[in-house]
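Reviewer 2 asked us to include a model.

Predict the structure of this chain.
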Amino acid sequence: MNKISLNVHVPAVGRKHDFLVPEMMSISKIISLMVNILSEEYPGIRIDSKQLSLMDMRSNKVMQQACTCKQLGVINGSKLMLL
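Predicted model (structure tokens):
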């Protein structure tokens, strides 16, 4: 299972975080994973993963949640934003 490192800007906490995720995991599952990690790191924050999206900072396009990183051409080191 190949994994890729994503650099994700999270405006809700005003920080960037690096996440290591399987390239064949769906975007919706990646968002859920990120929310779980962020909820542990920032206990006071309330985040609903069902209302969030990932945007590719290079193209400014919101990523389709049913697709995988590989399908969307997301590569190691890609810069994304969690909206």
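Helices lie at 27-41, 69-72. Strands lie at 3-10, 15-22, 54-56, 61-62, 78-82. We have added this to the supplementary material.
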